Give the backbone structure.
Amino acid sequence: MKAIILNLAAWSILPIMDGLAKHLSTEIHFVEVVWGRYFFMLLISFPLIFLFFRAHIKWPKNILLQFSRSIFLFLSTILFFYAISIISLAKALTLAFVAPIIVTILSSLLLKEKVGLNRWCAVTVGFIGALIIIQPGIIKLNLASLAGIGTGISYAFYLISTRSLTAIDSPFLTLIFTGLFGAIIISFIVPFYWTTPNINQWIIMICLAAVGTLGHFLLILSLKYAEASKLAPLAYFEIVNNIIIGYYFFGDFPNRFLWLGLFFIVSSGLYITISEHRKNRIN
């Protein structure tokens, strides 16, 4: 129950970060928004952990895994922030919901887990849902839609690596590395797109980073208490606040194709999870 509460809290908070990022991307380049998200995340998390949880600051047991995890989240962030700068929050997030499906594929390819016919059928259904949303051949397929799918792929790798790290490193240490590598990388890129933010934009950047820091810390904690596959369906809860924020602040409301695609993707993800839960109970 603790894992579920923490996970739901994370998915309730993170859409606020998405909404702030989308608003900010209408005023400044999305790369600068990504920089603000990572720079201030590091600026917030490191001093707090140093002051109150200093004992957890030590060299990670698997630095390569920490680095890889940070890169996956960085890719997911920059792709998603680009996507929401072009298309609606709901569409970008729904396309990113291919993540649980990608986790299933990765478990077969990377972890050598046995994936049965039912799971492959669910993956196919989820893929159909993504096709319904982007409608290739009917509407022009753009980079923003592909970035939305790329977000889900990157995030799937991030979830798998996060779950692996919870067994060997402190969640406080992992939170620091969540922002560290991303902040370093984006700091080399952002000068090419830099325009000096005004005071309101600085404040939004700081708020965006604070919300993201809290959300990802809750997510890391939840994965410490339960397997990623069991918590994966709860990520669909994010679409509720995402649609509310998108409609109320940006006037975006899902069309019938997005609702239909969302139904396919969510159904496939839930089916995979329920099947795995039943299998584990039998075993």
